[in-house]
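To: structure desk
From: M.T.
Subject: fold request, one chain
Message: Could you run this one when you get a chance? Sequence is below, nothing fancy, just the single chain.
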Amino acid sequence: MEKFTINIAKDFGDKLGGRWIKVGPSSGELFYETILKQKYQEAFKEKEKLHIYLDGTKGYGSSFLDQSFGELARQFGVDNVKNTLVFHTEFFAWDVKYIEEDIWVKK
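Reply: Done. C-alpha cells follow.
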C-alpha cells in the first residue's frame, strides 16, 4: 500500500497553469509550495516513496513541470528526488521523460 501519494488532478486541479503564481492560477509554483514540497519532505523523512499520479489533467506545460519538479530537485538534490518519486501515468509518459531527461539532468 502506498503511504504517500499525490493525484495531481484530484489534489490540485485538472487545468494547470504556468510557472509562477503571479502569472495565473494553478501554477507550478503554487503546486510546489502547497502540496509537492510538504509531501516530498514527509516521504523522504520516513524513507518512503512518494507516488505521483499524472493522469486526469488537461495536460502539463514545461514551465509547470520545471517550476514544480525542477524546483524540488534544486532544493533537495536530484538523486534524493529520483530515489523518492514514482510517477504513474497512462497518458503522460513523455512528461515523465521530460522531467527525468531534461529538467533533472540540467540541475
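Reply (cont.): The chain has one domain: 4-106. Let me know if you need anything else for the meeting.
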